[in-house]
Amino acid sequence: MKRHYILLLLFLFFICSIFMVYAQKNVGDSSKDVNYCIQCHLTLNGKPRSVVLEWENSIHAKKNVECDGCHGGNHTVNDVKQAKDKKTGFIGKPVKKDIPQFCGRAECHGEALTQFKRGPHYDSVLKIGSPTCVDCHGDHNVQRSTYHIISDKTCSSCHSVEYSRELVSSMISIEKNIEEIENSLEYLNQRNVESKDSMVRYLELKRYFHQLVHVFSKQEIDFTRKLVEIEIEYLDKQLTNRIATIKRLDLIYIITSGFSIAIIIAFTVYVALIRKRRTKVMKNFQSRS
Fold it and tell me: What angle, rounded to 10 degrees, do the helices at 218-288 and 196-215 form?
């Protein structure tokens, strides 16, 4: 009995030790994660506070891109002057015409900036300061690049309503097709089906689409849109055929499995009947003898 108590105490001691180590580890980690920029702004009112609340719902927050990722500075220092010292690379709020370079740094959205510079909107930014990245993507509540962030109202502030609606409608249609292809690829991946060739073409397709969205030159839009539509048609047919093949194989597997189970059940019943009949014959034979 004493031995059982000793083992129980040792087990409880072991569990408590693990818990304490885990708790200490978490405490140590949490101290590293303190962002004094966020803590300070949350104590303020108006815009300084709202930028943090907006950021919390952004794609940047989901990907752990914090204040210093865009604005520089030192978020680990609980002192405003030291945190914004020039030596820390603090940028603050850029002027409108500098926003494309601000967002398009090499480590961030360099390719998007290269594409944007090829279109007429970049010249407009240099002249009047818009439209920039934040006009579509937002400044602190930065959203993932989907058709949800753009509307004909955004474009019609400069372009005709008809042109804006046609362009936005076309982009929405293309992106929905791309989403269907993405879902098909995800399905094939879950089924462990080889689809590297399709994935390569899909990534190239997305690059073309982002080029279409960022360049916004009418000539390039018409050319790239045709290219994107051809790729969508090819990938759609390829993935549809592969998924159809998988579903046919699934059906064959279900039918074969059902047939096999039916044979096993029939054989089991047959054996049971034979044994029952044999037992009955043996009893009759024994009663006669």
Answer: 150
Written as six digits, the tokens of 52 are 């943090």
- Contact between 61 and 144 under an 8 Å Cβ cutoff? The reply is no
Ordered by start, the domain boundaries in the chain are 33-92, 94-143
Question: Residues with Cβ < 8 Å from 163, sequence gap 6 or more?
Answer: 155
Q: What is the dihedral of CA 208, 213, 217, 220, to 10 degrees?
A: 20
> Cα separation of 40 and 10, whole Å?
46
Place 73 in a pLDDT band, splitting at 50, 70 and 90: very high
Name the phi and psi angles at 76, rounded to 5: -90, -5
d(CA 154, CA 55): 22
pTM recorded for the entire structure: 0.63
3-state secondary structure (DSSP) of residue 168: helix
